[in-house]
Amino acid sequence: MSLYPYQLYSRRIDADQNMARYYSLSIQATLFGEIAVTRRWGRIGVRGGEMTETFACERQAAIHFLDLARKKHRKGYRPIGNCGDDADKQPRA
């Protein structure tokens, strides 16, 4: 298992469609030595769905994690940055 776990929190907000959604992905080791990819989704501020899939090795889990992240990005979800900063914020000039 890698020293630093994979985590991603993305959101898609469209006021015109009354849409405010989140999508979260993480990779963690299980107690049984497998690697789990957990995804959580729903409307921002409301408890949504959750699904966990297990893999034999970290490489397989990472490939699946990245595939899911790409699919959500294509649908308009954008990652939120580290330490609470928006990743898509424009830098100050």
From TrEMBL:
Residues 1-93 form the WGR domain. Pfam families: WGR. InterPro entries: WGR_dom_sf, WGR_domain, YehF/YfeS-like_WGR. SUPFAM superfamilies: WGR domain-like. This is WGR domain-containing protein. It comes from Rhizobium setariae. The lineage of its organism: Bacteria, Pseudomonadati, Pseudomonadota, Alphaproteobacteria, Hyphomicrobiales.
